[in-house]
Design brief:
The chain is mainly α and 90 residues long. The chain has a domain at 29-90. Helix 1 (3-26) packs antiparallel against helix 2 (30-51) and helix 2 (30-51) runs antiparallel to helix 3. It has three helices and no strands. The chain has helices at residues 3-26, 30-51, 54-78. It is elongated, with a radius of gyration of 16 Å. The longest helix is centred in the last third of the chain and has 25 residues, at 54-78. The chain starts with a helix and ends in a 12-residue tail after the last helix.
Length: 90
């Protein structure tokens, strides 16, 4: 790839990672926070690929899939979220 294309991809992935990490912190919904965290991890894996660290990117994706699916299954199994993503106290 050319230098300018790598720079544009780097800026885009960095912006996505920062915005989704901020969205994770600012949302009150556990579901949306988990989706933002997963998007941030995917952007971070893209940055690892851009740096040539393919193994770190693969590990990042595997951790993302494992943690995300475990969290969604935990919320579904315990009934802690409603259709709006808020914690139910029943």
């Amino acid at each position: 790839m050319t230098g300018i294309l790598e720079w544009i991809i780097f800026l885009a992935l960095s912006l996505i990672a920062v915005i989704t990490a901020a969205g994770m912190l600012l949302t009150m919904s556990r579901y949306r926070a988990r989706l933002a965290l997963m998007a941030s991890f995917v952007a971070l894996a893209g940055l690892f690929i851009l740096l040539g660290a393919d193994l770190l990117a693969a590990i990042q994706i595997m951790m993302n899939v494992g943690a995300g699916s475990r969290g969604f299954l935990h919320d579904y199994a315990t009934g802690q979220t409603t259709s709006r993503g808020t914690i139910s106290r029943k």
